[in-house]
From TrEMBL:
<protein>
    <submittedName>
        <fullName>Unplaced genomic scaffold supercont1.7, whole genome shotgun sequence</fullName>
    </submittedName>
</protein>
<dbReference type="Pfam" id="PF25534">
    <property type="entry name" value="DUF7918"/>
</dbReference>
<dbReference type="InterPro" id="IPR057678">
    <property type="entry name" value="DUF7918"/>
</dbReference>
<feature type="domain" description="DUF7918">
    <location>
        <begin position="7"/>
        <end position="264"/>
    </location>
</feature>
Length: 357
C-alpha cells in the first residue's frame, strides 16, 4: 500500500505481499482523508496470511515512545495488536528513525473454553456462503455488525506507554466464524470470503453424501497471557491521529466485476484454422458468383422462349397464375378500350362532282 508518512502496511501470503488495486469508489468517498487509505486484494479460500506494518527510515516518533498497530478482522470489535518501540539509537532531539523497523500480525491468541487451553491460531481466508432467506442466523446475531465482512482494518498511531493502576486481564474466547450469511445482511455487497480460525475437515463416506466436522487450525499451544500492566495512549495533538489502512479482500470474479482487474481475454484463434478460412472465402465467393450468373442466364432464356413465336417452344411455357383481382382489372381495362373504339365518329365519304351540270 502507498506509504503514509513513512508507514507501509501490506498483506502477505506465502511470504510475499499481495497485489493491491485502487478502490473504484475512492473518489466518491466522503470519509477519504489524508490518514485513510483503501485498497482491494485478491485472495483464495485456504490461504494463510499475515499483516506487515513497516516503518521506513525517516519516520518521526515525535514525543511518542511506541508505535501501536491494531488489526480488526471482519466484523469483530476485538483487535489484535503489535507494538514497535522507539529504538535507543534514535536522536533525542528529533526521534527520527534511522533504519526501518517492522512488526507482523500472523496469528491470534485465543482461549478454547471446551478444553480450557490457550493456543495461537493462524489467520486464513475461507469461503462464505450467501443465503437468500430474510432471516438472520444465530451466528450472524452473535457476530453483530456484518457491514465490515470481507475487510481487514489496520490502525496505526503514535503512542506513549503509561502504567495501569490495575492489571488488565486478557480474555479472548474462541468463537466460531461465520460460514454463511443472509443476502439481506450484506445489503447488496458482493462478499464471498471471510477470515477463519476453523477449517472444515471433510471426510466423504459415499459418493453423494459428505459429512463435515470442524477442526482447529492450531499453530502452537501457548501459556495463558500475563496480566496487562501498560496502556498505550495516542498523542494528544494531530501527531496522535491514527493512520487507517483498509484492505477489502475479494476473489478474482468479484474484482473483475468491480473493475479492479481486467477480464480474461478470449484465446487467440488458431492460425491454421484462420488461414484455412481465409483461403476458403475467395473460393466460396467465386462459386456463389457463378451460381448467380447461371440462374440469371436460365431466367433470361425462359423469358425469350415465352415471347418468341415458335409454337413448339411456346407450348412448353407454363403461364403464370394471376389472382382474381388482377384478372378483373385486366378485363375492365379491355372493356374501356373497346368502348373508346366504339365512340370514335365515322366520317362520311365526301364526293366531289367534277361535271359541268
Amino acid at each position: 500500500m502507498p506509504c503514509e508518512d513513512f508507514i507501509d502496511v501490506s498483506v502477505h501470503v506465502d511470504g510475499a505481499p499481495l497485489a493491491e488495486y485502487a478502490d473504484p469508489e475512492a473518489a466518491d468517498s466522503k470519509n477519504a482523508t489524508k490518514f485513510a487509505t483503501t485498497r482491494y486484494v485478491e485472495v483464495k479460500a485456504g490461504q494463510k496470511f499475515a499483516v506487515h506494518v513497516k516503518l521506513l527510515a525517516g519516520f518521526k516518533f515525535h514525543s511518542a515512545t511506541h508505535l501501536r498497530a491494531a488489526l480488526y478482522i471482519d466484523q469483530e470489535s476485538r483487535a489484535t495488536t503489535k507494538t514497535i518501540k522507539l529504538p535507543p539509537n534514535c536522536p533525542v532531539h528529533a526521534n527520527v528513525l534511522r533504519m526501518s523497523r517492522e512488526c507482523q500480525i500472523e496469528s491470534r491468541l485465543m482461549l478454547d473454553e471446551k478444553t480450557g487451553t490457550w493456543s495461537t491460531y493462524d489467520l486464513q481466508f475461507g469461503d462464505l456462503a450467501v443465503k437468500d432467506d430474510w432471516f438472520l442466523s444465530d451466528d450472524e446475531i452473535e457476530s453483530g455488525d456484518v457491514s465490515s465482512l470481507g475487510s481487514l482494518h489496520v490502525k496505526v498511531f503514535r503512542a506513549t506507554k503509561v502504567l495501569r493502576h490495575q492489571p488488565f486481564t486478557y480474555t479472548a474466547k474462541l468463537k466460531k466464524p461465520l460460514d454463511e450469511v443472509s443476502e439481506t445482511a450484506l445489503k447488496g455487497r458482493d462478499v464471498s470470503n471471510n477470515v477463519k480460525y476453523l477449517t472444515p475437515d471433510c471426510k466423504k463416506q459415499t459418493k453423494q453424501v459428505a459429512h463435515c466436522r470442524l477442526r482447529y487450525v492450531v499453530k502452537t499451544t501457548a501459556p495463558p497471557p500475563r496480566p496487562g500492566l501498560w496502556n498505550y495512549y495516542p498523542l494528544d495533538d494531530w501527531r496522535g491521529s491514527p493512520y487507517e489502512f483498509v484492505f477489502h479482500y475479494r476473489n478474482r470474479r468479484v474484482l473483475q466485476t468491480l473493475g479492479c482487474i481486467a477480464r480474461t481475454p478470449s484465446p487467440p484463434p488458431n492460425l491454421a484454422v484462420k488461414l484455412e478460412r481465409t483461403e476458403e472465402k475467395p473460393k466460396v465467393k467465386k462459386e456463389n458468383s457463378q451460381k448467380q450468373i447461371s440462374e440469371s442466364q436460365v431466367r433470361f432464356a425462359s423469358g425469350e422462349c415465352g415471347n418468341c413465336g415458335n409454337g413448339n417452344v411456346g407450348t412448353n411455357v407454363v403461364p403464370a397464375k394471376r389472382t382474381w383481382d388482377e384478372t378483373k382489372l385486366e378485363d375492365d381495362n379491355d372493356q374501356e378500350e373497346n368502348g373508346k373504339l366504339a365512340l370514335v365518329p365515322i366520317h362520311k365519304q365526301v364526293v366531289i362532282d367534277l361535271t359541268n351540270d
